[in-house]
Design goal:
Number of helices: 17
Structural class: mainly alpha
Helix content: 55-70%
Order of helices and strands: HHHHHHHHHHHHHHHHH
Largest sheet: none
CATH architecture: Up-down Bundle
CATH class: Mainly Alpha
């Protein structure tokens, strides 16, 4: 058995895990395009998106406070909606998204290395090295993951802020544009960009699978998500505000790499190299987080018999090494097959992200249902104002589903791929639960007795009666 004391990590690892999946190469593109589309007023869309994600953080913090386990949505959904919804939410909202996003991020790092540092090198080869390196880091245990993640996230955020400050102060040598901006020229139309801004914050809950490794999970999980959202908002605001001082809005809005354009305009070749390093840090941080968090979910599914037992096997460092290798292999398959190099990869990622929105809706529903079923269970964090934020959060997420992309043709393609993903996962989950597990699809699992010990005896009896009759 691994030494549990040595496997505990602190608050800044939790913050790094929260931020690590959010600030990715693709989100830097969304940030630049958002500021290019709206100018300074994009901050309004960003704040609206942050609020929606804050409500998501509230729900995940409450669920983690009741069940501080490493399975994340796997564990949270069993007592509320049963195994079927849990399997669908994890496989579509996390595994599928990670398959496309992780491999795309790895490929982006390869392209950056080629374009900025070594023109003769193969992007595919660089991507393969990145994936294998972070598979090995995560197999080695949470302590190495922690150290690597803190370094990567710190360098990434500090670099974004520094470039932005240099641009805002004019200290970089670049020539600012002789343009003045109306703060919000789009008026009420700015709210049409909330869906774009939403992706700047999505993934903050990736800290929850670390519950078993954190020293104080019931404190660090909600705190890290809130701190992470604040850090991201400030860093993105500073960089975006600097970008529009040096690059015309239409260039930013239509660029495939607006963050590179902005950094180059601010600092010249130095800025290009610096933002190239930031992109590599972002990719590395994303891969590191994905290869830590998703295997933890797969391990939990294996322990609940929702996947083959082999996915739950631990090595001497206490890591689910089979699940880590499995996810790394999926990334490599997509990289080597060049799927990540095609134009359709953005549609794949957005289709997976649509499924991510559905997972967030399920998280809110979990909170609402568990509030009704277990009103007296101890919650180390309780979302304020009853279920108000959950209802508002669900409403906002439904809005996201209908505004996933501004171009109607691309939007339909996203919906089509998302429906295919959901259909495959639904069929697999249905057959696995009915044939392999031989369980009802929506049979809920009662919360552990230890988790209910803070309830009054009559409430305990009431809950037992509910669970017996379901």
């Amino acid at each position: 058995m691994p030494n549990k004391i040595n496997n505990k990590v602190g608050l800044w690892t939790a913050v790094a895990a929260s931020v690590g999946i959010v600030v990715a190469s693709s989100t830097m593109v969304s940030l630049g395009q958002g500021y290019g589309s709206a100018g300074p007023g994009f901050i309004i869309a960003m704040v609206c998106a942050l609020i929606i994600n804050l409500f998501v953080a509230f729900s995940f913090a409450e669920l983690a406070g009741i069940m501080p386990k490493g399975g994340g949505m796997v564990q949270y959904t069993l007592p509320a909606l049963g195994p079927f919804i849990g399997m669908v939410s994890v496989l579509t909202g996390y595994v599928l998204v990670s398959m496309f996003a992780g491999s795309a991020e790895a490929y982006i790092a390869g392209v950056v290395v080629r374009d900025v540092f070594a023109p003769s090198i193969s992007p595919t080869l660089v991507s393969i090295v990145f994936v294998i390196a972070f598979v090995l880091v995560n197999i080695r245990g949470v302590q190495l993951f922690s150290k690597v993640q803190i370094v990567l996230t710190s360098l990434m955020i500090l670099s974004i802020v520094c470039i932005g400050v240099i641009g805002l102060t004019g200290a970089g040598g670049g020539e600012p544009l002789e343009t003045t901006f109306e703060f919000n020229a789009m008026g009420a139309g700015i709210f049409s960009l909330v869906a774009l801004a939403f992706w700047l914050f999505v993934g903050i809950e990736f800290v929850t699978p670390m519950a078993e490794e954190l020293r104080k999970p019931k404190v660090y999980i909600p705190l890290s998500m809130i701190l992470g959202l604040a850090i991201i908002l400030v860093a993105d605001f500073i960089f975006g505000s600097a970008a529009i001082r040096y690059v015309p809005l239409d260039v930013l809005a239509n660029s495939a790499s607006p963050h590179v354009d902005a950094s180059t305009a601010i600092l010249g070749r130095t800025g290009q190299i610096w933002i190239g390093l930031v992109t590599i840090f972002a990719t590395a941080s994303t891969l590191n987080t994905l290869l830590f968090a998703i295997p933890k979910m797969l391990r939990s599914m294996a322990e609940e018999r929702q996947l083959p037992k082999v996915f739950g096997n631990l090595n001497k460092w206490g890591m689910p090494w089979v699940s880590i290798v499995f996810m790394g292999a999926l990334f490599l398959i997509f990289v080597v097959s060049q799927v990540t190099a095609t134009a359709s990869i953005e549609i794949f990622i957005l289709a997976g992200s649509l499924c991510w929105c559905l997972t967030y809706i399920i998280a809110h529903l979990n909170v609402i249902i568990l509030r009704a079923k277990y009103p007296m269970v101890k919650r180390s964090f309780k979302s304020p104002l009853g279920i108000t934020f959950q209802v508002i959060g669900i409403t906002g997420l439904i809005y996201m589903l209908f505004n996933i992309y501004p171009d109607p043709v691309v939007k339909m393609q996203i919906y089509q791929f998302a429906l295919v993903f959901l259909a495959i996962v639904i069929v697999f989950s249905f057959l696995w639960i009915k044939v392999k597990m031989k369980r009802p699809l929506f049979e809920t699992t009662p919360l552990d007795t230890q988790e209910l010990k803070h309830e009054e005896p009559e409430v305990m009896d009431h809950q037992n009666n509910i669970n017996t009759n379901m």
